[in-house]
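Hi W., the manganese (II) ion complex you wanted:
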Amino acid sequence: MQVYGIKGGAMAKKVMVVEDNAMNRLLLKDILKFHGYEVIEALNGEECIEKARRELPDLILMDMQMPVMDGFEASLLIKKDPGLKNVKIIAVTSLAMHGDKEKILESGFDGYLAKPIDTHKLPELIKKLIE
Ligand code: MN
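Structure:
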């Protein structure tokens, strides 16, 4: 069943972008908005958990390398949180971490994307996970 919002379209799903780099954050936000998602932003893992508890996103795009709290730690805490454990998490990694894909998927992430972000793959993967 589809839920309709005031404007008559399907209610927008919420995607949280967790990324410490402002340029990457802006790029991801633009792609997501273009595809009709509501976007929430967080600059590190700690902020991600705090905002996720409040906003209950449908999916999180999680950068792995961030200050304060990295993506691995934040995702672990989210998957342990009874209120958040069903939120889908896509790991976003830099090319420097090439070869870590298996380690990432074994860590309980629902998907994996390498930087630079493929602007076609990103919405396809999100759609597969939450629609
Ligand atoms: Mn980073």
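The helical segments are 22-34, 45-55, 71-80, 101-106, 121-130.

W.
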